[in-house]
Design brief:
- Chains A, B, C, D, E, F: Belongs to the manganese catalase family.
- Chains A, B, C, D, E, F: Pfam families: Mn_catalase (PF05067).
- Chains A, B, C, D, E, F: It comes from Sphingomonas xinjiangensis.
- Chains A, B, C, D, E, F: One of its GO terms (molecular function) is metal ion binding.
- Six copies of one chain form a homohexamer.
- Chain A is mostly helical.
- The first copy, chain A, contains ten helices and four strands; from the N terminus they run βαααααααααβββα.
- Among the domains of chain A are: 19-82 and 117-208, Ferritin (Up-down Bundle), CATH 1.20.1260.10; 219-260, no CATH class.
- Chain A has helices at 19-30, 35-47, 55-81, 87-103, 109-114, 118-123, 149-173, 177-203, 206-210, 281-285, and strands at residues 2-4, 229-232, 247-248, 255-260.
- The first copy, chain A, has a three-stranded mixed sheet, with no helix packed on it.
- In chain A, helix 1 packs antiparallel against helix 3, helix 2 runs antiparallel to helix 7 (149-173) and helix 7 (149-173) packs antiparallel against helix 8.
- The longest helix of chain A is centred in the first third of the chain and has 27 residues, at 55-81.
- The radius of gyration of chain A is 27 Å and the shape is globular.
- The relative contact order of chain A is 0.12.
- Chains in contact: A-B, A-C, A-D, A-E, A-F, B-C, B-D, B-E, B-F, C-D, C-E, C-F, D-E, D-F, E-F.
- At the A-E interface, strand 1, helix 2 and helix 3 of A face strand 1, helix 2 and helix 3 of E.
- Strand 1 of chain C pairs antiparallel with strand 1 (2-4) of chain D.
């Protein structure tokens, strides 16, 4: 179960509110690279963790709980970027900060701004929502929790890698010192988490021990002659040589080689359509194609 | 650009059609761990590949094109599992293969079966659709193509890991020799692809060279004191010790340690609601909470 | 604007409630081939209809309004299939009608049934919901209203064709006289609507007058040499000859021929990644691929 | 069943077309607070209404039918805001109305405008679509029809409350007299509907009679000692006192009090992974955590 | 920020694992009436809370944090329902508990069961996922946080009402004492939360003080003559009389009456399509409809 | 199975990079009218093609494979529109090309631009993604593959019609010669494909032979008296006369006529709610409506 403290994990300040940056920050909340994703992914991996003992259940709960605080920080940053104190000053502020400087003045810069801040203005009244920077709501199919510990760890490394890439893009897109401080903190935490999940892979025997994932499937059951071949699909037979075309495989269980892709099967022929299946008569009678026209 | 051959990459045979297994196979087509996902993920990573030269663009196109053939194999397998030759025999077949043996007979086993095969029966007329085994359509937000080569490689390892886990579950769920052959082949290819994408990480300098991703972000800009700390969020201060709580970090750039999570910020106080923002009067006047009741 | 009558467009009766059929009927309500789709598609086409006069706005409103009554009929049919009069009799009814006969008896057939009727039992309390037979909610991106009258008509023919295919599958899946009557009526209406939308194409000049859609785009602006060629992508150069490979084109504006697909462009080379774009260093420096390993 | 009149429920005029406002209006059509939602929600609640008699079925049909006319009004308003009469004048109009005044002139303000009006320009050819102001299509999972009359009424109050909040935000965002007239009408109707659905709650016995919803569940079956306690999850045990922490409960069936949240359960320990479940070997053997590294 | 305790808020036990019930429980996790929804809804309402002071921010955080623990309990219950200790016993267990008793025996009841447990078997390896009982992933557009405190409270009452309805349906669908205990606890908490959010409405002045929501919109700006009228859309002018057709309105600001719906506007006529808009020529030239055929 | 060539089907050049046009091009990639849709639709229709022989399976594979190359061309165009060579020049370029010319200068036009390019900047690092121009990911429910050949052909005509409409809108929205060349090519291919799929209808007997779809459903089973009637739903009995209100039907199997819509059924009365269904007591007891207040 969980507890909360009204205070934030780290202070969030915005020196100069910037509504467009508020919208960009949404990607780090509700984007597929964002914090809801890692928070919920670690939660659900924890809830389904089976053996060894409960060590990894607990580990995952620690970081899931931390990430929940990151959602809170980012949502607070969105709300702060959307506001200034008095109303008239705000319109002036908006003009200065964003539109005026850019657009060369005019009667109503606020109107264009409104045209770019749909959900924030119309749906939330100047605060964050669990959607990405395009207003697309986060969808929980992105919570990867496979029941395989090693697969989940790579899913987590992937999430923290795209997450840190996104955070550095946001860092580069703002000049606000408060925002740079917050993002620099989140970027550091993503660095830790990349290392952390790979450390679990190391505990599980490293790439040689963990791969191929799942390592519980008997290798005799897979088509071993194709298990370490790079398939070239190029019409001219060329391929980009690399670490993956020769030498020992990363998991240490095979030798890389190259195989020119070609049909090893026949053209499939399905049976005719069933009479009650809503097909056209021609599909049911299976009149040969050459007789059709 | 692309070419096709009417023949399959590998022969697909079904010894005994099994409509329920057809539905399970859908997860490998349109599930988030499935083949549409890896095919399109590699395609879009290729289309956006920037430096070094076009090597990785081509590499990604090779494997994307291979995966396209895997979608075709699986879709063919679904169609074959949904059919038997003559209609009457088919109903008998269905009774024998699935329902009869299980359900102890009865007048109309086909009716229950129909109740479990919605999209296949009602929408596709006995063939595959690009949805998962629950009938949820695949959604392209699962195509991870971040513009960062290393992040993308870990996304690909994650995809091939959950993909191989899924394929082994399907392998274990069928007794059909034809299906076991097809799945054993796909399982082998997933093993190769796990190795292949990690081989690219090795080319990029391995974990020490590639991490933290993106490696182009100046480390001075992140909050370095927190970049290698495990944050414990446990109320009692406990934590599960492991490779990630002490020793050198995986990227070789820091030393793991433990930090007891605590608020480093204050409780955030947002400004009152704007008068024209559709809030309640109480939120605009900002009457102190203690005066509300 | 709209009016309603509490009575149905056509009587809906269910002789023997069948919860599994209720679930199948959902496809005709909230499936992409279903009635919400055609109702809303015609509504939105009407709302955006521009010239000639308001004739087609009104035509579309007529049929949209009719379809609204079809949603009502189907939703009523779902509710009736989920109920029987007294509770105890109902459990008996369920046992008789569906599970008992099929599954050979047992202590609690209702439990398996419940396991197959999620949304109906858990979310709606025994009535219809705007989702398909797999419980996937209808999503309004399927409302095609392109602003081009001829394109919209073909979208409507497509919708009524898949809709009638679905309705005949449902007709074939039930033995209930009441349900067959309702579906026979809906199937007749779909026949009319297929004819109706093609009649509008005829009013617009038929295939020769309407195609290529949009007919307002100057033909000189398209790459005319490829406008009537069948592109063969087969590696061996073969192709399935047909009405589309020779003879006058359907729109009467060209002559069909065959073109063997081949690259007419070069391999694209994108610029290196920008330094602030969150890419890996290797992508920014654009070190040649052969130097990478 | 339903009928239509070609005329609108209320005249819709646009004095000065404003494409950006057209985009904002989309939120009231296809947003989760919009008119498709209430229309379809009342329709489906009607279709599944069970006892008392058919009174509430009919009531719901009345208001559902009214809302259908509101979708039509808003869609018409979108189309009118996207047009002006002759093409050249329109470009001039666009420059004047939106971009020119704001952006200080320039060669091609229309281009930026186009960059902000994707679906309207590209997909609908200058008319409305059933999506929100960010272009996210409406998804029917927002149709709440629970089969419980009182729960549905609160869902309806919630929908009309967020709907009126949205409509007032749109009212405040436009200076167009025609648009203010239309929105003032819709805002009035939302006021009525908030009152209307709460009037049904009053008919059902008010808060004391209807709560807790469902009132048909025997109170003896719930854990009554926790049924009127405010759970404090604050680590320091503090909580914000209010009407909900002491005094009689709103439903008149209990007395509010405060409970400091704490674990009343143990740490859950799941069994090891099954051998055939695609887990890693370590999860199957259940090696104790302390032996892993 | 947040903390966690490895123990559960309340003990979760399953006396007799029931995989089908595991699937039904998913609705309470990832259904629109489920715990992810209330947890995240209260979180985001808290993050955007503006005035009065931070009282309601804190209140919302308390209950959001509690709900997070409910997700954990339910996910644990799903995992427990999917397992039994030794593998062979499990297959036996499955046969006994669910399929055998129901289906009258047969060789492979597990196969049918597998056909009904897609995501649990194939995607999560026997644990919970953030999807509903049909496998549809939760989508965050269901997080209602409008920026209006009273509207949000009614959204919360709606969520807790449909949530408690769902929980009682699950309670009635199981005979397992452990599951009944857990659900009885959650049902009690939902009762509290219904009362709690209505208590906030009472603090905000009750229905008379809070309505119409938002109460900050000047009543003079709405079309007051229609603000308390029930609109009858029946073709025959009939309507279901009730508390909402006469007497003082619930908000005490008007008097209910009845208005027979009729067109107060004209048929809208949109301008012809623009020449460059991809319409058909007929729509651009605006040839009168009567001349079309 | 499939092969690839690193070169493009047709050269793609961008004379003057235009990030806003890059965003608009996304609609042709991931919009419902886009190339992913037709590519995957033809693929899945091919995979499920049943009789006549494999002719149409092969035909569909040809065009599906061609469309895959179109996705590649468009994705390359997006990447090229997002880049310019050196960074400083790029910012200058952006200023010149898009914002500067439009907005009259200002300090940071790039900031506004960033506010309009979310996914391209934040998620992909300057390349294409499989989403539409609003950033909404493509969802595979738009892959229509009904199992009925004629229905599928009309779905394909519909897709190519909306696709060509979209492409002409993009053509009209750009002044870039390279982009006009690419779009002119795609527009020509769409013209061919409209003709191609209608040519298959001609092979299947034309409208008279193919309609009503499915032509395998016995006409005696539909309610024939309503199969060729235009239903008028207008309250005043008026209707827009046309080709669809009199004369022979398009399929040659009936005669069009007009029918004034009216209730042919009664008001449906559902049974009371079940006691264990989570309804309110009033719904279970079925107290008559008139006794409720």
């Amino acid at each position: 179960m969980f507890y909360h403290d009204r205070r934030l994990q780290r202070q969030v300040t915005v020196d100069k509110p910037d509504p467009l940056f508020a919208r960009m920050l949404q990607q780090a909340i509700g984007g597929v690279e964002g914090e809801i994703r890692v928070c919920m992914q670690y939660m659900f991996q924890a809830y389904g963790a089976r053996g060894p003992s409960n060590k990894y259940r607990d580990l995952l709960l620690h970081t899931a709980t931390e990430e929940l605080g990151h959602i809170e920080m980012l949502a607070t940053a969105v709300a702060l970027n959307l506001e200034t104190a008095p109303t008239e000053a705000q319109e002036q502020g908006a003009k200065d900060a964003i539109v005026g400087a850019v657009m060369g003045g005019g009667e109503s810069p606020r109107h264009v701004l409104e045209g770019m801040l749909h959900k924030q203005l119309l749906s939330t009244g100047m605060s964050a929502h669990p959607s990405d920077s395009d207003g697309v709501p986060f969808d929980m199919s992105h919570i990867y929790a496979s029941g395989n510990l090693a697969a989940d760890m790579y899913c987590n490394v992937a999430a923290e890698s795209t997450g840190r890439v996104l955070a550095t893009r946001l860092y580069n897109a703002t000049a606000d010192a408060g925002m740079k401080d917050m993002l620099g903190f989140l970027i550091a935490r993503d660095a830790m988490h990349q290392n952390q999940w790979l450390a679990v892979i190391e505990e599980l025997g490293g790439e040689a021990g963990a791969l191929p994932i799942p390592n519980s499937f008997p290798e005799a059951n897979q088509t071993n002659e194709h298990a370490y071949q790079f398939f070239s699909t190029s019409v001219d037979g060329s391929y980009p040589a690399g670490r993956y075309t020769e030498g020992p495989s990363i998991d240490g269980k095979g030798e890389f080689s190259v195989f020119q892709a070609q049909p090893m099967g026949e053209e499939p022929v399905l049976g005719p359509a069933r009479p009650d299946s809503g097909a056209q008569n021609e599909q049911i009678g299976a009149k040969p194609a050459q007789q059709i026209p």
